[in-house]
Amino acid sequence: MTAQTSHTLAIVDDDKRVLEGLQELLESVGYAAKTFRSPSAFLDSGALAGCDCVITDIKMDAMDGFELEQEVRGQEPGMPMILMTGRTDIEDRGYAGADNHRVFMRKPLNSQALLQAITRLLAFPR
User: Fold this and answer.
1) Domains of the chain by range and CATH?
2) pLDDT, tens only, 5-18
3) What is the pTM of this model?
4) Which of 17, 66, 111, 112 is the most buried (most CB within 10 A)?
């Protein structure tokens, strides 16, 4: 699977190993990947304007993935987002599922499923 190099993805996670692993995976298929250790680092960087998709952990200190999603949607309502979680109770809280601009995925991520989700999300017009 080869991605179009014109797509830039932002990865937001407070786990350095997750950031490095996802960056390596995404760049190996041709995406440009920018990593951020916190939602505030991402929002303060101005990278959202040049981003085609945001991949974020849900559970982070200070601002969680849902709060980040609200901030992103306030600036870019149609931004494709993938929210990752290791939590098992997420479905019970009504957060499971996907739409044209959002996908939820459980950690540890399945690389093939992640790449397919990105391809699907990028196919929808913003």
Assistant:
1) 8-123 (3.40.50.2300)
2) 589 999 999 999 99
3) 0.89
4) 111
